[in-house]
Request: fold
Amino acid sequence: MASHSIAMNAVGAAGKNPVDSTAFYDAKGEHHPEGSTMLGFWLYLMSDCLIFAALFATYAVVGRNYAAGPSPKDLFDLPLVALNTSMLLFSSITYGFAMLEMERGYLARCQLWLAVTGLFGIAFVGLELYEFQHLIHEGATPQRSAFLSAFFTLVGTHGLHVTLGIVWLVTLMVQVHRRGLVPENKRRLLCLSMFWHFLDVIWIGVFTFVYLMGVLQ
Amino acid sequence: MSAASNAGPASGHDAHAHDAAHGDHGESHGSFKGYMTGFVLSVILTAIPFILVMGDVLGNDRLTGLVIMGFAVVQIVVHMIYFLHMNTKSEGGWTILALIFTLTLVIITLTGSLWVMYHLNTNMMPMHMHTR
Reply:
């Protein structure tokens, strides 16, 4: 298997023109028309994972330093968090459907599922912004205590990732609309797929560790 | 994976390789069944922790905390397998290797921070209480 993939990589490296790269795509029978984009993107996700690890560690350390301010129990609205979680989970499965339609070559259906994914993403960010606005309105601002600083940084960073994911999603929908499901667009959609599912994985950590455990304490 | 190996040597025959490649494609990128399995498992693994905490089913915060952490770990694994299509073979094993390395760093970061800061807090405790 190892020698096989090395041989295929050599073919991929040699093939500079589009025809060869298509052949490489077919011959390898995997999702990456241009060599190791997927591995590279995976490595980026792993480095992003380390950013979140640092933010989780910060939250774990200072998460109980309320400075006589509000505690998670006073602030967190679990039904809202459950709704938020379901939005992200639905967006994950609809992105999966978009990928399946992409594989089968149905452009319109792929676009439709991407649009649905985007709407769920927007709903998620909207609910999160509503929650933040509500907290700030109650005086639970990031400046209030170490707990709130860590909370806003961790959850806000995740929300920022989702927001940029939506921007990326819209960009790709325009590109797919203009160029169709060409190998380049498929590769981009696969990268975004990994990014989107990765954000859902991070959110599992957030709702468990920050919201649910926070209310328990 | 065997479909890919078969397609490799036959790359000259474009149409043939194309078909074989597509068969494998669907497999390595999940099927409808795979996504649905992952989704249903995720819904269950998300709903149970929320019910446990919101309904205070177990009646013991420490135990509930441990249980929901367990559910989170299982759900992360489910997402990795069914949504991110993680396996030991993709990219010749490099993705799983990168993941293991990252997880090592994540565990060191989390446990290290908690451990060090816990002891720091313990040592600060008498002074903290004194000032109060």
User: Anything to note?
Assistant: Chain B touches chain A through 63 residues (CB under 8 Å). The CA atoms of residues 88 and 94 of chain B lie 8 Å apart. The radius of gyration of chain B is 23 Å. Chain B has one domain: 33-131.
